[in-house]
User: Which sequence fits this backbone?
């Protein structure tokens, strides 16, 4: 029986190091499930940590990292298509897929085989909805019932607008043909959890380390190459606040303070989304993210081998 491992958790929880260690021991390959690591030359800010993949004189194979140019358009549907291309190749070579990431929406789409991501954006509708209050958006969604209604994630304004977009498309095009989803091997899902204060400490320490080791220069180089500031701001977090700093909109202390706060908020939203996945039926085995990587890998591999004939 073919199986795959999923390792999820909030930012700065140690997912990459753990996924690499598990893949090393199981003859596996890591599949990044991260909405920003797909972009080339956005290395420090997205936490690719590519050095982690080089261990014991070998390089652990990884996928869905550095597959499109920074500044290019890329969306969830494209990610699903890329994932559906990569997964069969890993399995065909007898390797264990180790999915690793913190982008909950991408993980959910993969594990649940969401097909509605194929519905294209509607720019005109998005412009119309941009002036709506959140309550008006929720009412608009309620007034547009569809087969997507019970599946929709409306936890943020951006996702609510996308839900309306999908529902509107289905209402206007009831014969829409949705793509088939790939058949997944059985997935064993592990989550890394940390006490809030420890998580916050790790985020703060990592941010200051990155600021001191080239993060600002990375953003400056992207701007110098002609990538529009608004595109980098769209990528959020490090790229948003550092771009504003480089453009003179924020001074350095304000930039650092706002960025740190934003990353803490982001980690909290990640955990909220993972808990939602649990409520929706995804079985996540939570592990203590404070334990050494080797001990965590022992636990994951023991569970994996018990369930693998």
Assistant:
């Amino acid at each position: 029986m073919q199986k795959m491992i999923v390792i999820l958790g909030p930012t700065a929880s140690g997912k990459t190091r753990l996924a690499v260690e598990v893949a090393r021991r199981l003859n596996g390959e890591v599949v990044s499930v991260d909405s920003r690591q797909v972009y080339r030359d956005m290395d420090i800010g997205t936490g690719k940590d590519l050095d982690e993949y080089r261990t014991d004189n070998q390089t652990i194979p990884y996928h869905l990292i550095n597959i499109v140019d920074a500044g290019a358009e890329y969306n969830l549907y494209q990610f699903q298509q890329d994932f559906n291309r990569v997964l069969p190749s890993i399995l065909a070579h007898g390797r264990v897929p180790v999915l690793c990431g913190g982008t909950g929406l991408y993980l959910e789409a993969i594990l649940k085989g969401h097909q509605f991501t194929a519905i294209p954006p509607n720019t005109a509708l998005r412009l119309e909805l941009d002036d709506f209050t959140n309550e008006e958006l929720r009412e608009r969604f309620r007034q547009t019932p569809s087969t997507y209604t019970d599946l929709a994630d409306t936890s943020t304004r951006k996702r609510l607008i996308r839900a309306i977009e999908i529902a509107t498309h289905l209402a206007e095009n009831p014969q829409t043909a949705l793509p088939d989803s790939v058949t997944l091997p059985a997935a064993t899902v592990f989550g890394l959890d940390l006490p809030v204060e420890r998580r916050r400490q790790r985020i703060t320490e990592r941010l200051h380390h990155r600021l001191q080791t080239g993060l600002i220069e990375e953003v400056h180089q992207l701007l110098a190459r002609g990538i529009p500031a608004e595109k980098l701001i769209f990528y959020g977090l490090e790229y948003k606040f550092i771009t504003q700093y480089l453009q003179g909109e924020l001074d350095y202390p304000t930039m650092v303070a706002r960025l740190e706060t934003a990353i803490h908020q982001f980690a909290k939203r990640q955990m909220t989304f993972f808990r939602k996945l649990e409520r929706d039926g995804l079985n996540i085995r939570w592990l203590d993210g404070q334990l050494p990587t080797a001990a965590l890998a022992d636990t994951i591999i023991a569970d994996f081998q018990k369930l693998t004939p």
Summary: The mean pLDDT is 93. The CA atoms of residues 138 and 160 lie 7 Å apart.
